[in-house]
What does this fold into?
Amino acid sequence: MTELSNCPLHDRAVIAVTGKDADSFLQGLISNDVTKVTGEQAIYAAFLTPQGKFLFDFFVLKAADGLWLDCEAARADDFLRRLKMFKLRADVTLTDLRQELAVSAVFGAGAATALALPEKAGSARLSDAGVVFIDPRDAAMGGRLIQPRGQLPEFGQTVPFTDYEYRRIGLRLPDGSRDIRVEKDSLLEHGFERLDGVDFAKGCYMGQEVTARMKYRGLVKKQLIALGFGQAAPAPGTMLRAGDLEIGELRSGSSGRALALVRQDRLAIADSHGDELLADGQKAHILTGD
It folds into this structure.
């Protein structure tokens, strides 16, 4: 898909973190370095359990009144509740802005130019009571706009959510709890290092010790891959097989594509034997680009 496309993201919510301790409050909780966030740079990050298991992923942006977190709408209430548990005496105010703000994506050829941004992952700028930024995970995903409801500008052709999903899956970008099992999965198996969603030099945060151990001791045994099918992708949770060998499990899918979390060693065995990948009887091939 090459033409400029605009897609409302109704599955997203925005949480505001304001107050003089906003930066330091988040810095001790999330996987990425909050000091990287400026009016010109956004980041991707996650909030983990103390055991290093996934809870939430989100984008962190500098807004006029503090920091905004672009997160899953369906789980925003739980995210807000958990953040408030750590507030203690910090001068921080946490506010759900989903009724005031809306999120949309702009992608395709010329997306960064249309948004008046450098074509660089995470580049950002303030805009008319909102924020505009390039996806910090991969600039090829295009940009995002957070603006007051009813004021989202449109760029190019408005397309359905399935078009956004088709591109996201092709780029191997996980979408929160749809692709990462809550309180069960680790970040590094889902590409967070590749997607600049974790900083190994920032110091302590919730789950930092386990995450660092996985990296430095070579304990990452799984990876997220993108698959293409000749027809509609099988349902999430379907096992991916090569002969009698279970390779992994499908996660989110759309328009004949799906993400799958696979065992690296078993995928290598299947590849060396030239075995076909099958999910619910359907042949699958690994996608290498969007």
In short: Residues 76-85 form the longest helix (10 residues). The chain has a mean pLDDT of 95.
